[in-house]
Every structure is written in structure tokens, then in C-alpha cells.
Design brief:
25 helices, elongated, membrane, K_trans_N, 686 residues, alpha/beta, Amino acid/polyamine transporter I, 8 strands, transmembrane helix, ion transport, transport, 2 domains, two-stranded antiparallel sheet
């Protein structure tokens, strides 16, 4: 790897960390501009800076960078990844369940055993308590919906805040001008997403380099010029004195301080778009972790930026409403305005790509309607783009900008839901530490208790923003939550029905031996979702068609979190009964061509089947492969029973059916030949 490639890799990480700067790509705008304090004394400002420093240190640096980032799932981050990580180590029995990503054999391996008595009891409690499992699943869905909801709000807030700085230089520029310029920039940003994270980061990485350098320079300049003793704010005693002196006003300030760390959760959720080690630089000694680029560059840059702005406000407290731009020297104002706007776009990009990662993980776990997921990098499996989600976020973002027109309600909405995601992350990480990492109970408590208290305090401070615009991200999150809950519930009911009504091999042999079933020459590939057993739609097909090809292969596909699966490992086949019926599990990597209608693929399946049969069946397989080949795609249509409750009927008959009708087919990526493909539906009354 040459120098520029190494720099690009590091900048790709910084691109995702850029969201930590908040509005405009820099949190100082939010923290000081959002405060209601007036007539600030030097001690008040030092206390605010001390709050920022310790919040960044405790929550972002220690919790996320050094602890939470280690709980990735195959390089993916976010609450879905935490759930998947937990699910691979704990067996769930609840009917309402997100798809399992592990195997039964995993649960008996040595690395899943042992641990403290509390660890064992916690695992047993989760495995035996369906209510606890349902609670955990709903918690995970809520967290992911909130991240996606923030993915629409962050670009609107960041870009608007950045552009509003231009109004201080010209009275002719109105809020309407700022709104429509923001709309144009946001549409361009969303249109650029199809290029992929690598190309976007290649363009944005120099922006972050310049952004760090200029903000550090201005911060150091302001410290030296206005108030060098601002470094005293490192002492937390200023925070205690501040709260004793200001009471409720100081409590309200916590909501503004929190805006400086909202990007921490986005950094974790966006982990799949950059390798974890791309933000971990240094060396490994025994069990020590890598030194993190965040602690070497981003963290000190943030501290110096805040300290410089605080030093300026000590001398100019009346400028607090426009703290960031006021602290920028006049000579470099316009270059900083351009850099700030570009940094705001970087911050927005990070949240958008995090939303793509969330949706991709949701698809893998079977709790989000199927949308088109495009892998934009041949090297990094986590770098994805979804056109449907991209345009949905674009409409929401533009709607927020035009609807609120950059008013105070939009500013109040920013960051309100993130604190709830952070609390959920703390809860899930505690389970990981206790059940999977086998961390000692005192260390688990040292993590859980301080962070649940700190984040709980921030949450209470942000509650007063809900009626003042903070309801917006909750409304967006609720919209996505209805989608995810309905889809997860429908898929769970579908799986439950198929598991309870699947065919046995004895029943299959009995049906095929009936004189009423005709055997037609050729091969039929029947695509179905059920991996374990013969789905009831096969029974439905045979009973109503009364005709089965000499060879029927029940095919189920699976996408693995790897770039490619070798041809010799791509097919797993088995024989089902004595009537020429076979099972074939096809596994793809994200770079593999999924076209299954070609002659080469049919020959490959036939060849693989021949390894599991005797010489007589080999001749039958060879003969059938020379005849006509047809493809049948099974589709289950759910319908709630009359005795089901109103909520169940609403969910299944209306929401789930609507989502199923308007989502992509499970086998749409297989490129089957249309002239040889038949879609067969079956009504599942549940």
C-alpha cells in the first residue's frame, strides 16, 4: 500500500467520524448557539468547555472507540450487528424472531461455554424466556429505526446550519435563499450516492484533512490571542460549580452539549463502510488494542476547536448566538465557509451510508422488506448502496428542509433520538460483555452503571425538546418501525406456518408413488425459502398440477458475508426420498454472478447431484438434463384467520401484504430466463 492509498484508507474512517462534529461538521456551532444562557461569566464558559471535553472523553473515546467498536459482527456495526453477534451465541425460541445467523453446532462449541455463574445464568435466562427475547428484538428494531430516522434529519440540519452562516455577511440573502440552496446541495449529495463510498470518500477525504487542519489552527490562534488559560477547563470542578450556580438552566445545557457527540453512534453504525482497522493505527502487544486514529487526530482536533471558540467567547460573550463564525478571523471567513459547507456534506454522507448499512443488515436478518442492495466495492463487503432507501431518505430530507425552513424546530429535532440509540447500545453491549466476552461482573458493572446514568441524564435533558420539534425524528422512526415490525411479524408467521406444515419424506414418497401423479421428462428447479425440510408449497404444487418432472431440485439461496464463494463450495445438495427429488442450497458471495438459468449452471448442479446417487440415478440425471428445464418460483401469500385479532388482521392482511407486493422478489437477483419461469402462489391462512 503506497502513501496515498494509506491516507485514503485513514480518511475514509475520518469521513465516517466527521459526523461527530455535528451541524456544519463542527459541534461548537450547536453547543454554544443552542444554549439559552446569557451574561456568561468566564467560569460558566469554562464549565461548558469542561462538559464538552469530559463528554467526548467518556462517551465517545472510551465507550465507543475503545469498547463498543470491538463488538462488531463480521465487520458490521450498529444495533443489528450487536443483535446478530448475540444471536450467534444464544439460542432463541420465540416465534416472533429475527432470522438466526448462526448454526446449532455453534452453541455447543467450547468458546461459548464457561464464564462466571452470573454469565451462565444470564444466558440461560435469555434462552428460556420468550418475553425477554421479544423485548430484545423490539429494542433492536427501535434502535435501528431511530438510526435510519436520524439519517434523514442529519443532512437537513447539517447543510442548513452550514449555509446559514452566509446570512451574517449579507442582508440581501434571506432564509428562503438558504433553504433552496440547501435543497440543491442535498439532491446532488443523494444523487452522488450511486458512485459508492470509496469514490465519495476519495473526493471528501481531502476536505476532512483541510477541515481538521484549519479548525485546529483557528482554535490555537483564538486560545493564544483571547484567553490562554482556557486550558483550565480540563478540571471537572468547574462542572460541579456550574450546576450548583445555575440549576435547571445548566441541566438544559446538557441537551446542547449532547449535540457534540451524536456522531458516535453513526460511527459505529457505519462500521461496515470502512474496515475497523482503518481507524485503528499502531501496534499490538500481547492483549493490548490498537491505538486509534480517533484519539490521535479527531479527538484532539475537537478539543482544540472547542477550546478556541470558548477562549473567543470569554472576551466576546455577546457573540454566543453565532459563536462559530464569529470566532473565525475575517481574513479566512470565506474559505472557512466553503470548507464548513463541504464538511457538513461529509457529515451528512456518513449518516446516509450508515442507513444503507442498517437496511442491509435488516435484509440479512429478514426484518426489512427486500430492496435492491448494490455492493459498490469489490474489496469491502460492507460498502453498499440502496436506490430505494436513498430516494426515500432524499424525499424525507428535502421535505424537512422545505417544511421547517431551517427554523428552531428543526434544530431542536436534531440528536433527540440518538440518545435513545446510545442507551440501547449500552444495554446490548453489556449483554455481549457478560454472555459472550465472559467479562467479570465488576468490570461489566463498571461499564453499565456509569453509562446508563450518564446517558439517562442526557436523555432527561433532551425530553423538553420533544414538543418543540423533537417529535420529528420520533415520527420518522415510528414510520420505519411499523414497516420493520410488520415485516418481521409476517415473516415469523410465515416461517411458523411452513415449519408446522412441511412435508415429510415419507409423505413425499407416498404422493409421488400415486398413479394420479404423472412424471414428465426434464428437470424442474423449484425455488423456495425454507432451508430445513420440504415446504408445504411443494405439496400444493404436486396436488394441483398432478405432474412432476423426472428430476425436481428444491433450491434455496443464501448470500454469505464474503466477496466470493468458490464453485466447488457453492452448492450443497442432498437426496430427498426415492422419487428423483433433491435439495440444493446455493451460496453466493456479494461479487458472485447469481445467474442460474444458464446451461453451465444447470450442468454444475447436475454434476454435483451425481456425487450423491447411484449409477442408475446418474443415468436418469444425465437424461433429464438433456430435456427441457423449467424454473418454478414459490410465493407465499399470507392471510389472517377470522378469529385473529384486529391488530393481527391489520398487520398481515394490509401492511405486510402491501410491503410484500411492493418489495423485490426473494429470487429477483437470480436472472432466471422469463420464458422458462413459472411463479406459483399459495395462500397461508395463519
Amino acid at each position: 500500500m503506497n502513501f496515498w492509498q494509506a491516507m485514503q484508507t485513514i480518511f475514509l474512517a475520518y469521513q465516517s467520524l466527521g459526523i461527530v462534529f455535528g451541524d456544519l461538521g463542527t459541534s461548537p456551532v450547536n453547543v454554544y448557539s443552542a444554549t439559552n444562557l446569557t451574561n456568561l461569566s468566564e467560569d460558566d464558559l469554562l464549565a461548558t468547555l469542561s462538559l464538552i471535553i469530559w463528554t467526548l472523553t467518556i462517551v465517545v473515546l472510551i465507550k465507543y472507540v475503545f469498547i463498543v467498536l470491538q463488538a462488531d459482527d463480521h465487520g458490521e456495526g450498529g444495533t443489528f450487528a450487536l443483535y446478530s453477534y448475540i444471536r450467534r451465541h444464544i439460542k432463541f425460541h420465540t416465534n416472533f424472531s429475527i432470522q438466526n445467523t448462526g448454526f446449532e453446532s455453534d452453541l455447543s462449541t467450547r468458546r461459548y461455554g464457561g464464564g462466571s455463574p452470573l454469565s451462565t445464568k444470564a444466558k440461560e435466562f435469555l434462552e428460556k424466556n420468550p418475553k425477554a427475547q421479544n423485548f430484545l428484538i423490539i429494542l433492536v428494531l427501535i434502535g435501528n429505526c431511530m438510526v435510519i430516522g436520524d439519517g434523514a434529519l442529519t443532512p437537513a440540519t447539517c447543510v442548513l446550519s452550514a449555509l446559514q452562516g452566509i446570512q451574517s455577511r449579507s442582508s440581501k440573502i434571506t432564509q428562503d435563499h438558504v433553504v433552496w440552496i440547501s435543497v440543491v446541495l442535498l439532491i446532488a449529495l443523494f444523487a452522488f450516492q450511486r458512485c459508492g463510498t470509496s469514490k465519495v470518500s476519495f473526493l471528501f477525504s481531502p476536505v476532512m484533512l483541510v477541515w481538521f487542519a484549519t479548525n485546529v489552527s483557528i482554535g490555537v490562534y483564538n486560545i493564544r490571542k483571547h484567553h490562554p488559560s482556557v486550558v483550565k477547563a480540563v478540571s471537572p470542578h468547574y462542572i460541579v460549580k456550574f450546576f450548583l450556580r445555575n440549576g435547571k438552566t445548566a441541566w438544559d445545557l446538557l441537551g446542547s452539549v449532547f449535540l457534540g457527540i451524536t456522531g458516535a453512534e453513526a460511527m459505529f453504525a457505519d462500521l461496515g463502510h470502512f474496515n475497523k482497522r482503518s481507524i485503528q493505527v499502531g501496534y499490538r502487544k500481547a492483549k493490548s488494542r490498537y491505538m486509534l486514529a480517533f484519539s490521535l487526530v479527531v479527538y484532539p482536533s475537537l478539543i482544540l476547536s472547542y477550546a478556541g471558540e470558548t477562549a473567543y467567547l470569554v472576551q466576546n460573550p455577546e457573540k454566543i448566538s453565532d459563536a462559530y463564525y464569529s470566532s473565525v478571523p475575517n481574513q479566512v471567513y470565506w474559505p472557512m465557509f466553503v470548507i464548513s459547507t463541504l464538511a457538513a456534506i461529509v457529515a451528512s454522507q456518513s449518516m446516509i451510508s450508515a442507513s444503507f448499512s442498517m437496511v442491509k443488515q435488516g435484509l440479512a436478518l429478514g426484518c426489512f422488506p427486500r430492496v435492491n442492495i448494490i455492493h459498490t466495492s469489490p474489496k469491502h463487503e460492507g460498502q453498499v448502496y440502496s436506490p430505494e432507501i436513498n430516494y426515500m431518505l432524499m424525499l424525507l430530507t428535502v421535505g424537512l428542509v422545505v417544511g421547517f425552513r431551517g427554523g428552531v424546530q428543526l434544530a431542536n429535532a436534531y440528536g433527540v433520538v440518538v440518545i435513545w440509540v446510545m442507551i440501547i447500545t449500552t444495554f446490548l453491549t453489556t449483554i455481549v460483555m457478560l454472555v459472550i466476552w465472559k467479562t467479570s461482573v465488576p468490570l461489566v458493572l463498571c461499564f453499565f452503571l456509569p453509562y446508563i446514568v450518564i446517558e439517562g441524564i442526557f436523555m432527561t435533558s433532551l425530553l423538553n425538546k420533544i414538543p418543540q420539534g423533537g417529535w420529528v425524528p420520533f415520527a420518522i422512526s415510528a414510520f420505519f418501525l411499523v414497516i420493520m415490525l410488520s415485516w418481521t411479524y409476517g415473516r415469523s408467521k410465515k416461517t411458523e406456518y411452513e415449519s408446522g406444515n412441511k412435508m415429510s419424506i415419507q409423505e413425499l414418497d407416498q404422493i409421488l408413488s400415486s398413479n394420479s401423479v404423472h412424471r414428465t421428462r426434464g428437470t424442474c428447479f423449484f425455488f423456495a425459502d425454507l432451508v430445513d425440510g420440504i415446504p408445504p408449497i411443494i405439496r400444493h404444487y404436486i396436488q394441483h398440477v398432478n405432474s412432476v418432472r423426472d428430476v425436481m431440485v428444491i433450491v434455496t439461496t443464501r448470500i454469505l458475508p464474503v466477496k466470493t464463494v468458490p464453485l466447488e463450495e457453492r452448492l450443497n445438495v442432498e437426496k430427498l426420498g426415492n422419487g428423483g427429488i433433491y435439495r440444493c442450497l446455493v451460496q453466493f458471495g456479494h461479487n458472485d454472478c447469481q445467474e442460474m438459468g444458464g446451461v453451465d449452471y444447470i450442468a454444475l448442479v447436475t454434476l454435483k447431484l451425481q456425487e450423491h446417487v447411484d449409477s442408475a440415478e446418474i443415468r436418469m440425471l444425465e437424461s433429464a438434463s438433456q430435456e427441457e428445464v423449467v424454473f418454478v418460483v414459490g410465493k407465499a401469500i399470507l392471510k389472517a384467520k377470522r378469529e385473529s385479532g384486529i391488530l393481527a388482521r391489520l398487520t398481515i392482511d394490509h401492511i405486510y401484504r402491501f410491503l410484500q407486493k411492493n418489495s423485490r422478489s426473494a429470487f429477483s437477483s437470480l436472472r432466471l430466463p422469463h420464458e422458462k419461469t413459472l411463479q406459483l402462489g399459495m395462500l397461508y391462512e395463519i
